[in-house]
Structure formats: C-alpha cells, structure tokens
Amino acid sequence: MTEMLHLDRVCVGWPGHAPVLRDISLTLHHGERVGLVGPNGAGKSSLFLSIAGVLAPQAGTIRLNGQALRTGQFLPDVALVFQQAEDQLFCPTLAEDVAFGARNMGLEGADLDARVAQALAACGLSALADRPVHQLSGGEKRRACIAGALVMRPALMLLDEPSAALDLRNRRNLIALLGRTNQALVVASHDLELVLELCPRVIVIDQGRICADGPVRQVLGNAGLMAAHGQEVPHSLTPHAPAAHVHLPNPAAGL
Ligand SMILES: Nc1ncnc2c1ncn2[C@@H]1O[C@H](COP(=O)(O)OP(=O)(O)OP(=O)(O)O)[C@@H](O)[C@H]1O
Ligand SMILES: [Mg+2]
What whole-number distance in Å separates Cα of residue 140 and Cα of residue 132? Predict the structure, then answer.
C-alpha cells in the first residue's frame, strides 16, 4: 500500500483554547481502514476537521499524497461525514444536497444525475430524493451525509460516528457498504463492534495524545488499556462461558 496521508507532530486545537491534541504523528496508506477511538471530548472530530482542511493545525504538518495541506482549500480526495448531520446538510432537497460535492468537482448533467442516483441508492434513500433535508428522520439524515460523501468517490473518507442514529438493519447495510469500498477510511466511533468488523487497525486517543495504534483485536482486546481510556473490550472479544446445558421439564413424564 502506498502512503496517502501523513501527519507529522500535528497539534490540533481551537483558536483561543489550549490544544486538544499534541504531537500527533501517523501515516495512512491508500485503501487502509482505521478506527479512531477515544472518550467524549478526546479530539476525534477536531482531528477530522484538521485532516479535512477545515481547522488549521496549531503546529506540525499534514501531507496528503505528498503535498502539504492548506486549510480552506477544496480537497476532492477527502470527504468528511460530519458527526452532526445538521452541520453538513444545507440544500433545499436531499438530491441537491448529495449533488453538492460532485458538482464542486465539476460534474454536471447526466453524469452528475447518475452519480447522485447511485449514492442515494447505496444508502437506501432513492425514494426520498426530493424530500427537504429538514424533513428527514435522524437516521435518514445520517445516511444522507454518507451519500453526500460517497458521491465524490473520494480516496479518503473520514466518517464521524457513522452508525449513530441508525437502526440495526441500516447499521448492517452501512458496514456492508463500507466493507465493499476500496477507499481509505478513518472511522471515529463509540460503536466498537463496528470498528472491529471494518478496521484492521485502530488508533486510541485520549488526554491530548495517541495512546495506542495497532491491530484492532490486539488494541480493543486489551482490557487494561480500554479501561484506562474510558472504553470497554467489545462483547465479541470477551471470552464467554459456554451456554449452560439445561434439561427442560418434560410434561409427558409428569415433571
Ligand atoms: N468549536 C469549538 N470551539 C472550542 N472548543 C471546541 C469546539 N469544538 C469542540 N471543542 C472542544 O474540543 C475538544 C475536543 O472535541 P471533539 O468534538 O473533537 O471531541 P470528540 O472526541 O469528537 O468527542 P465526542 O466523542 O463527544 O464526539 C472538547 O474539549 C470540545 O469541548
Ligand atoms: Mg466527535
């Protein structure tokens, strides 16, 4: 895999506030899938905003495909699915909203329509194309945000809590959809089972730094590490006793 994204001693923070993350160094390769885990307020969303070129790093450099990233520039290779759908959706209808990123990339006419239709279909939203975005349910808004990222066919998708608000079937569809892509993904999530299924590698951030970066089963299966950072080992990595062997009462035998 070739290198796609490189962060070198990056300091992430909000103007007028102490840094949220300090000295963050990491490399992401084309097609790699990485989970980003950490407690509330650890800086997952802030880090995404810096990688997406929205929030300027306070120090350090971010390189995308070898080029230093300039905050504010349009990055067709990077699509951010916002944690709060309301921060992302703003067009009058769902179809127009999903079209926005692709239109920015210069697509128009039949090509644009086909892309939008495909992204809506992938997220199970075709029937709602003309619905005003503020009339979508919470889970529909979340899927609309994902469609708005997919439509760009970005080389890197940053997904901030993608399964939040999804019912179980739509969560399962999302895992299948993301599992089929060959794009690089960084998935910030408290849904550790989703991270476990999708991402061979996981990064844990807490208290301003990277606390772990490694194979997902090894990191999420480390009970001490998980507890130290406000997490729990996912249920499917927890050893289970075999189900008890129970004899049910047999009415025929008068028991
Ligand atoms: N616009 C802002 N201005 C100032 N501080 C902010 C702003 N947005 C977030 N913060 C602060 O930055 C820190 C990191 O927040 P961030 O949203 O990145 O955390 P997170 O890891 O995504 O948390 P969660 O799991 O709750 O989504 C928090 O202390 C938060 O209060
Ligand atoms: Mg967040």
Answer: 12
For the CA of 13, the nearest atom of ligand 1: 12
- Which protein residue's CA is at the shortest distance from atom 25 of ligand 1? 40
Confidence of residue 249 (pLDDT cuts 50, 70, 90): confident
Structure tokens at 255: 């028991």
Looking at the CA of 44, which ligand is closest? 1
Query: Do 13 and 56 fall into the same domain?
Result: yes
**117-152 tens-digit pLDDT:** 999 999 999 999 999 999 999 999 999 999 999 999
How do 156-160 and 184-188 pair as beta strands? parallel
Give the pair of three-digit tokens for residue 172: 């399962």
Mean pLDDT over 212-223 rounds to 98
Region 240-250: mean pLDDT is 75
Q: Is residue 205 part of a domain?
A: yes
Cα separation, 15 vs 12, in Å, equals 10
- Tell me what the mean pLDDT of segment 59-65 comes to: 96
Domain that holds residue 99: 84-153
* Mean local confidence (pLDDT), 56-79: 94
Backbone angles phi, psi at 156, to 5 degrees: -135, 125
Give residues (CB < 6 A) around ligand 1. Answer: 14, 17, 20, 38, 40-46, 83
Higher pLDDT, 136 or 74: 136
**Residues 226, 230, 234, 235, CA torsion sign:** positive
- Answer yes or no: is 172 within a domain: no
Same domain, 100 and 161: no
Are 193 and 106 part of one and the same domain? no
Question: Are 107 and 221 in the same domain?
Answer: no
